[in-house]
Design a protein that fits this description.
4-stranded antiparallel sheet; alpha/beta; single chain; 11 strands; 5-stranded mixed sheet; 12 helices
Amino acid sequence: MTVVIGVHRSNPSLYHLSRLGYAEEELAALGETVTWHPYTDGVRTGAHLAEGTIDFGGTGSTPPVTAQAAGHDIVYTAVSAPRPDHGALLVPEDSPVRTVADLKGGTVHLAVGSWQTHLVAKALDDAGLSYATDITPVRGDSGSEAKLRAGEITAWVAQGAELVAARRAGGLRVLIPTGEVISDRSVFFTRRDLAEQRPELVEALTRALRRADAWAAAHPREAAELAAADQGGTVEDWETALKALPWTIEEVTEEFIAEQQQAADIFHRTGFVDRAITVADALPRKA
């Protein structure tokens, strides 16, 4: 068969894997081929799997939860190590917002539906506030940083090279360091039919991911040059951002499932998803 792997800019492991040929090598050993399906919004990963557009994908922590809530029968296959410095919620240096509770009534720009929703919703929940009623979440865009600096919005969640660039420019401070709220792992998942009928394919793709991560860890400058040429920003900012990532692929653990369940419960309580789910249902069934 031809395995279709989804790739988007927000998942650095898959992004670099798509350029290195390791997936092709690993699946060729099984007599299979690989094609890549580029798309722009990782939030669509669950739907793409359900529709058969892709066979395997990777995102942050939120999309697999929303995929389950939408009724898609996904299976977790692997996760990255925690990424505590991958992103942060920023406010202006002179902002009166000093604690998470001070966000109440404010407008927060973020990638709605991504891991950033998990970050903000969990931080608010920990402070006794609600993502649904106590802030106005707005999908961020290329103008978010300028709006934050101009005082037009309260806070902005930045990640990767854009976070490095924003902090280097000065005038902003971190209100919520990601690692103090969530583990922020990359999450890899597939459809149940592929996970249970062709586990050797999943194992091969996991090996390929580990090889790609090992390459990125050993060649941060080259990885940064690839990202900057395709996504913009400076090579230096990308190199700093990529060096902050763990570049380690791990097995799905009970601890990870528990964190995902906590996120799912918060999302349901605040109405971000319209039904409760059991995250452990997205594990392979035991034979």
